[in-house]
Amino acid sequence: YKQMKNTILPLQIIGITVFLFLYNNLYGQGVIPNGDFESWPPGNNNNPEFWDSPNSLTGGFPIFLFTVEKTTDSHTGNYAASLTTSTFFGETIPGLLSLGTLNIDLINPEDTEFIGVPFSDRPAQLGGYYKYSSPGDDFGGIGILLSRYNEVTAQRDSIAFGLTVLFEEAEYTAFSFPLQYFSYQEPDSLNIVILSSASPFIVSGSNLIIDDLFFDYEGTPVVDIGGDVSICPGESHTFDAGYEQGYTYTWINQETGEVLSNDNTLTVNEAGIFQAIVQNQQGLPGFDSAEVFMLDAPQVFGLTVEGTFCEDDPLVDFILDGSETGVQYTLWHDGVQISEAINGTGDVLVFAGYDLPGQYVVLAEDGGVPCSSETGALNVAFVPRPQVFEVTGGGTYSPGEEGVEVGLSGSETTAVYFLYRNAEELVTQKTGTGQPLSFGPQPEGLYTVEAVNASWYCSEGMEGEVLVDMETSLTEVITGSFKIYPNPVADRFRIQSLHRDISGKLRLVDSSGSVHLQDTFSIHRNGIWKSPDLSHLPAGIYILQLFFEQGGNHAEVLFLNR
Q: What is the pTM for the complete model shown?
């Protein structure tokens, strides 16, 4: 009796909790093996072929208790499976039928293995036909699990799961229920478990007759992203998987396994095999794949002389830094061909003499390959030079007076105006106001004005020059004794003494008068003074002012570039 009870108790536990086991330790191919229960091989513990039950434990001598048996009360064909909940030695055992192999662990029932059969399809529903009767409020049940072995975790991953309960029906009644998919991966095993008692309060005598199990694939998303495509370098192709509300979309590079997008479309610009996975609200996936082929095209070379140019500058020459023999090259401006075709030489090509602002590319074409190629686009702008106004003022002043006013007859707000004395010495600068400008009283000298476009550095000399003179010069001016370089400046400038020792103070100011550098200098003959690093300053126009201890001062425009 004790031995029988040790066998029966685990079976009862298994019957009550079997639906939970469907999430673990299952394997799973094609149609449902012997789903019509027509094959019952002799010597198989009274089990249908491909199916297993606890009959191997309870059906032997001296018990002879079979909870699963063959019956001729079939829906179609000759036989069906009959599962009966039975009482033995005071314990109630549910009829249990499992697809595949059932390895019952009598000591630890929770470790019982429900080993399914190989399976790689993705059905939408499981259906069949049944009868059910019970002397109480019991009900039967059926569950299904699709799984896949995970080589990394050495566990089985659940792919899809479904279950339903079967209530009392005197005549054969159809049933079906959907599978809920947790993953779009392909399963490798299938397990189906059937119970004559699926309620927590099982009743002896409950009987489930089941027949003609089948899979329904209706509802599987139909995915069509089109066929394989070929593209040229620099082109792209967009695949479209359609759109359904509530569906999820996954795009995969099948060669690398990388997930590329979760939108319903995918745009690609490289060769590869791309797969669309579309899952409905149940997670049931549909698939389609297409390959992208990259066609041959001529080699791409670089095009130079991009920049901004001033009006009346010499014509612009475009230089292609390489070419291939057998390939023809043409220059295009804003989408229009503007040059004759030039045959590649294997060396640099020049497209000379163009003065139109806009976007330029060079197109390379080879009759032996299906695709053309083009350089990156170069943008060229020709900026207007400042408008010309007349230099005003000048005259004679007496010693002790401040000087004579110098001005300009007009100005533009987009320009900066530089006042020079004796052609070389920068005196001051003013930003245009749209009105005449005054540079204030100036000492003796010959004065000219140059205007620079504030954004693009295109310059233009203003008309005329004015002379300021006085009877006696009181200031020693150092001229021609030094030079300042480089100009434009990237980070540091230098002052070189040419034929005498010089020393003094300097400062660097911007067009608004803000001081950015103050320092002293002392340079021996032919020596060089190097400035601090100016790379932190914004690019623009600055004035370097020099105040010599020997007497006199000097100002020079510095352009800071990046």
A: 0.54
Question: What pLDDT score does 62 carry?
Answer: 63
Q: Which CATH superfamily is domain 229-294 in?
A: Immunoglobulins (2.60.40.10)
For 94-115, what is the HEC assignment? CCEEEECEEECCCCCHHHCEEE
Q: For residue 361, how many other CB atoms are within 10 A of its CB?
A: 17
Residue at token pair 């032996």: 368
In this structure, are residues 85 and 209 in contact, taking their beta carbons and an 8 Å threshold? no
Q: What is the pLDDT of residue 22?
A: 39
pLDDT at 544: 92
Which is the CATH superfamily of the domain at 303-381?
A: Immunoglobulins (2.60.40.10)
Q: Is 236 exposed, middle or buried (0-12, 13-18, 19+ CB in 10 A)?
A: exposed
Domain with CATH 2.60.40.1930 in the chain: 482-560
- What is residue 85's predicted lDDT score, i.e. its pLDDT? 96
Sole residue written with tokens 């990394």: 152
Using CA atoms, how far apart are residues 145 and 133, in angstroms rounded to an integer? Answer: 26
* C-alpha torsion 89→90→92→93, nearest 10: -10
Give pLDDT < 70 ranges for the chain. Answer: 1-30, 59-63, 105-107, 109-110, 306-308, 400, 456, 471-480, 562
The CATH number assigned to the domain with range 482-560 reads 2.60.40.1930
